[in-house]
């Protein structure tokens, strides 16, 4: 009996060791090695596209300031140049670094007049020395927080077709998509033209079927996030060449949408309107 128990114990021990060996083979590299490899991959992806990246950026976890389109070229493992749709300021060069943390952390580690504007406290962004040509000329946000932007981003995906990040302070999703060589020389001007055209509108209302829902701006100075009566969460968006692209999928009276395309003035819509592909919702400028 004792012999049987001994043999049984040896069998269990052998099985356990065998399982451990199988589990060990799942991870051929240490966690540190894997993290360092992911950091190297982010560096490589950032520099792969020589025409640069379009960044869909939303400062502030509450999204009250809306979204902005930035254009970045990571020219080497140190330098980055940045332009923005919201300003006519020429490309600004600064530095960046990718470091290991909970994953690869992309940090814009030296001051860039365009990128870091969103992280300036209101005490500074009210100063003409920090303001951006063509953008705001007064303080935006609170004295100590400003637009609540940030410098550090956790990279959750890095490939040739997109780089997806998460703001370490806001947890907002930030998406970078590669700029095509065919559009590299015109893309910044195209987005700036869209902003000029659509930013002029105000006092919107949503139309769904026979119902109408007035919408005001969460922040009137930026005009990139809408509030509907009874809803405390802003519908944040960026200006894009075809109309408006929203931060996430939103819902008005049961109709979901992520992008609304502009339709030129027609009939009773003297200022045109924005609509989804199905035509089931309209966002109509009132003035």
Automatic annotation (TrEMBL):
PROSITE patterns linked: PROKAR_LIPOPROTEIN
InterPro entries per record: DUF4302 (IPR025396)
Alphabetical list of Pfam families matching this protein: DUF4302 (PF14135)
Name the record gives this protein: DUF4302 domain-containing protein
Source organism: Sphingobacterium zeae
């Amino acid at each position: 009996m004792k012999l049987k128990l001994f043999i049984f114990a040896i069998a269990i021990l052998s099985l356990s060791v065998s399982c451990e060996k199988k589990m060990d083979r799942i991870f051929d590299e240490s966690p540190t090695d894997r993290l360092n490899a992911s950091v190297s991959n982010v560096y490589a992806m950032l520099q792969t596209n020589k025409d640069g990246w379009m960044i869909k950026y939303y400062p502030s976890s509450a999204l009250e300031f809306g979204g902005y389109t930035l254009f970045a070229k990571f020219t080497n493992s140190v330098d980055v140049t940045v332009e923005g749709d919201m300003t006519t300021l020429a490309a600004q060069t600064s530095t960046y670094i990718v470091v290991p943390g909970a994953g690869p952390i992309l940090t814009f580690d030296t001051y860039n007049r365009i990128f870091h504007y969103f992280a300036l406290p209101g005490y500074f962004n009210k100063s003409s020395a920090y303001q951006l040509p063509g953008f705001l000329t007064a303080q935006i946000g609170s004295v100590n927080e400003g637009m609540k932007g940030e410098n550090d981003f956790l990279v959750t995906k890095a490939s040739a077709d997109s780089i997806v990040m998460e703001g370490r302070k806001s947890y907002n999703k930030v998406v970078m998509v590669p700029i095509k060589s065919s559009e590299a020389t015109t893309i910044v001007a195209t987005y700036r033209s869209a902003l000029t055209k659509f930013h002029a509108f105000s006092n919107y209302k949503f139309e769904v079927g026979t119902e109408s829902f007035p919408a005001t701006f969460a922040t009137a100075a930026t005009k990139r996030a809408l509030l509907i009566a009874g809803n405390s969460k802003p519908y944040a968006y960026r200006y894009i060449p075809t109309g408006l692209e929203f931060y996430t999928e939103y819902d008005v009276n049961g109709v979901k949408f992520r992008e609304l395309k502009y339709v030129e003035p027609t009939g009773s819509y003297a200022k045109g309107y924005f609509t989804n592909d199905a035509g089931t919702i309209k966002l109509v400028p009132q003035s």
